[in-house]
Design brief:
This is Urease accessory protein UreE. Belongs to the UreE family. It comes from Novosphingobium endophyticum. There is one protein chain. With 162 residues, this protein is mainly beta. The chain has 2 domains: 70 residues, Urease metallochaperone UreE, N-terminal domain (HSP40/DNAj peptide-binding domain), CATH 2.60.260.20; 61 residues, Alpha-Beta Plaits, CATH 3.30.70.790. It contains 2 helices and 10 strands; from the N terminus they run βββββββαββαβ. The strands form 2 sheets. Strands 2-6-5-1-4-3 form a 6-stranded mixed beta sheet, with no helix packed on it. The C terminus is likely disordered.
């Protein structure tokens, strides 16, 4: 079986890809997993450590060919400002819970979560269910693309307000 041990960031690779694969958010956060791409290319993703694969990245196969990665459609919540709550305040509540979020000028997209939905609608936000690719912000650790946020003693502490 072909292996993929190298991720090439979107915009940093050229040439044609031999195949394409669309993965949802969970499927794009892997270290080792067997996949079958859209046109039948079977390969084993075998990275040195878990990574969050991004829409537009490519995987270099052991034979040198490239597989282009895309974000698959999934069920999301699209959150908009509502009576008494602006988008900045909504963003604060989302960030305070360390949720991956896709930010747009007029809305925030989040993965479906009934608890978060209830909180946001309780605050007055307008929340609708959509199906779309989820491409959240990469955040402060995007350059390294490998920061894992574990609830262990890792040198800094978090305080959450309700």
């Amino acid at each position: 079986m072909l292996t993929a041990r190298e991720v090439l960031a979107a915009g940093e690779w050229t040439g044609p890809a031999c195949d394409h694969i669309a993965l949802d958010y969970d499927e794009r956060h892997r270290r080792r997993f067997a996949y079958v791409a859209d046109h039948g290319t079977e390969f084993l993703l075998d990275l040195p450590r878990a990574a969050i694969l991004q829409h537009g990245d490519a995987l270099r196969l052991s034979d040198g060919r490239l597989i282009e990665l895309g974000a698959a459609s999934e069920v999301l919540m699209e959150v908009r400002a509502g009576p008494g709550i602006g988008l900045v305040r909504i963003a604060w509540h989302v960030g305070n819970r360390h949720l991956p979020a896709e930010l747009h000028e007029d809305c925030i997209r989040l993965r479906e979560d009934h608890v978060i939905r209830a909180m946001l609608t309780g605050l007055g936000a307008r929340v609708v269910t959509i199906e779309a690719p989820f491409v959240p912000e990469q955040g402060a650790y995007a350059a390294g693309r490998e920061h894992e946020h574990k609830e262990q003693n890792h040198g800094h502490h978090h305080h959450h307000a309700d």
